Amino acid sequence: MLLRTVSGLLGLAVLLGAIWAGLFWVFLVTAAAAILGIREFYRLHPPVAVRPDPPLPEDDAPAGDARDFESVPSAESATIISGPGNVPAADEGESATSAPGDDFEPPGQIPQTAFGGLQGASPSSLDTSSLTAPGASENSLDSTPLPVLLGIAWVAAFILSGAAASSSFQFLGSSVGILAVGAFVATLWLIAFYRGPNWPVAAAYLVLGPVYVGFLLAHVMLLAQVGEAFFELDPLYFDPETGPTIYEVGRNWLIFALLINSATDSGAYLVGRAVGRHPMAPATSPNKTWEGAFGGFACAVVAALLLDRVLDLGLGATVWDGAWFAVNWQPLAIGATVGTISQFGDLLESRLKRMSQVKDSGSLMPGHGGMLDRLDSLLFTLPTVYYLLVAVLLL
After folding, report:
1. Is residue 134 in some structural domain?
2. Number of structural domains, the chain?
3. Which of 29, 124, 260, 340 is the most buried (most CB within 10 A)?
4. Residue 276 within a domain
5. pTM for this one?
């Protein structure tokens, strides 16, 4: 737990330092996180394990051919169809290299050793995992690794779009275009290079990965520049002598979202470890409990109340104005929503890891795992805070 705490505090300090340093550093950190995140996401693509083909004589029919399973009217016909390719599978403890026909019964009896196990068995119950075409190699059906360079270019386009957009509508419009172009290129790659039996799964990972990582993470740039929306609504708010700058408002909202998300994660973790008794999603994340989820929600609301009083969010009076007992309902509502949505993002990433049968998405941060393990809830927190804030400003 100590390693996890120290690693988390260092990561939080790096993020806060980048936010405080300026918009350029926010862009660099966001782009780096997106690149690392898409690499880890593509590695979560479940591989396909295929057993190598058994050696077959050139003049023999493929193993599992339907002609080998026809009914045998007499021992003579059984003798006719017996051959080098139709030797029964060796039982446990027997040698698989015995001579053909050694295990057959004397003439006049139906060879039960060869066909008894197939009587009454449905086709679906037969083991066909090793029935591959003659000449196929061991890797002929292995899933081709997803193209990381394509994913990096895709998420970089989303991040650049978020940095260049002047409004949410412009960002959404450009994102649709980026998604369409990326999907077209991904389709060409699937047709030209992908080999594997589960191409729909590969297509889903290939297309949804950049949306999950790049599109959602691009809201960092939108939130960092949200002060421009405040300026359009109330230019007098940014008084050169008494008011904050345009970037300071966006910076404060970015810090607000980041700290609310951290409060939710920390509250859920600590309360769950202390008093958690009822699993929330045992098949997805056995360690998450309903008690921990409520603790994370409560911590998010408390953190929103405190941050609203300290940060100048532009939605009402703060302690810096002498309003020590002022409570603004908008940040509280946003904090309560984040306390719920962020935990959904955590469960979704846990589900992706279970599907890939891995514990962590990577090993970048000691005690936490990979980049996706730290971005899981934040990927949903950032868009939630941004669009709720835009809705509040438009009301």
Report:
1. no
2. 1
3. 260
4. yes
5. 0.72
